[in-house]
Write a structure and sequence with these properties.
The protein has 295 residues and is mainly α. The chain has helices at residues 4-39, 46-63, 75-95, 98-105, 108-118, 121-130, 133-146, 150-158, 160-182, 193-215, 235-266, 272-291.
Length: 295
């Protein structure tokens, strides 16, 4: 069983590896964003770059910061990690148009190699199938509920490998969930009333889980009885705090984009100018990638 001391042993090398990967991604994103700015300063404004960098910093906070040392001792900290990886970080990163920046940040050689590959019909069909809202919602809900089944939860607590799989699946499911909402390049924006319904339905699995953890008078994960206690929390109080945190954060985070999407549907012209500049840049980038096939 992994305690705070055991977790701290691998924290240093894990943090170093995570920091290296995140810094490389940030460097590529910033480099691409600067090139995009030369083509169209209004298409990808600075707030999108800030959103991308903030999202990357939240990934670090969840996976490589000192917070990790308390993950196996407090369910509340585990829930904070889950919220960062599944709810906050993916949304912020996708809002930063990462793939548009990454593509423009790649050297010519990288574009020559990846361009024809990504334009293969089978790859495009796979991408369209993977980004269907029904699939994205289902994968997100199953990931959330599945890893909080006591047997799977305990498996992640006892195994470093399965714990890493759990965290990776949270992040992957988060990206899938937010993709139909944010519609980053190379997808095409299709705002509709179904996007608002999609966000509303997404609260249901979270409400189900958080309600069970909040109002249950029994500890759902007995493994925490053998862990050191911190900050004066009993095991049951820790469970209730984690449930309250999940319910509050998820409700508020899903409410904000739902309100923005509703405003877009009711007043589309107020958003037309910025969206048009971004669409023109996306179309130009798409033409550039297609042109690589003839080089």
């Amino acid at each position: 069983m992994m305690s705070i001391h055991h977790t701290a042993i691998g924290l240093s090398w894990r943090s170093s590896a995570i920091i290296f990967v995140l810094l490389f991604a940030c460097f590529l994103g910033i480099s691409g964003w600067r090139r995009v700015q030369r083509r169209s300063a209004s298409a990808v404004p600075a707030w999108r770059l800030g959103s991308f960098l903030l999202g990357m910093s939240l990934v670090w906070a969840a996976l490589g910061s000192p917070l990790v040392a308390y993950d196996h001792d407090l369910l509340t900290v585990h829930m904070i990690q889950h919220l960062l990886l599944m709810t906050f970080a993916p949304a912020l990163i996708l809002l930063g148009e990462p793939f548009l920046s990454f593509w423009n940040g790649l050297p010519r050689f990288g574009q020559n190699v990846l361009g024809p590959l990504f334009r293969q019909p089978s790859v495009k069909r796979f991408g369209r199938a993977l980004s269907r809202p029904a699939l994205c919602w289902t994968v997100s809900a199953l990931t959330l509920l599945g890893w909080h089944v006591p047997s799977l939860f305990t498996l992640g607590m006892h195994s470093e490998m399965w714990h890493a799989v759990e965290q990776a699946s949270f992040l992957w499911a988060g990206f899938l969930f937010w993709w139909p909402v944010v519609h980053p390049w190379p997808s095409v924006s299709t705002w509709s009333q179904w996007s608002v319904l999609y966000l509303f339905l997404a609260t249901l699995p979270c409400d189900l889980l958080s309600g069970f953890l909040m109002f249950s008078d029994r500890v759902a994960y007995p493994v925490y009885f053998s862990m050191p206690r911190h900050f004066g929390f009993s095991v049951l109080a820790d469970q209730q705090c984690a449930a309250a945190l999940m319910w509050t954060c998820v409700t508020l985070v899903y409410l904000v984009p739902a309100a923005i999407l509703s405003t877009r549907l009711l007043s589309p012209r107020s958003f037309h100018r910025g969206d048009l500049a971004l669409s023109e840049l996306q179309a130009a980038t798409q033409r550039d990638s297609e042109r690589l096939e003839t080089v």
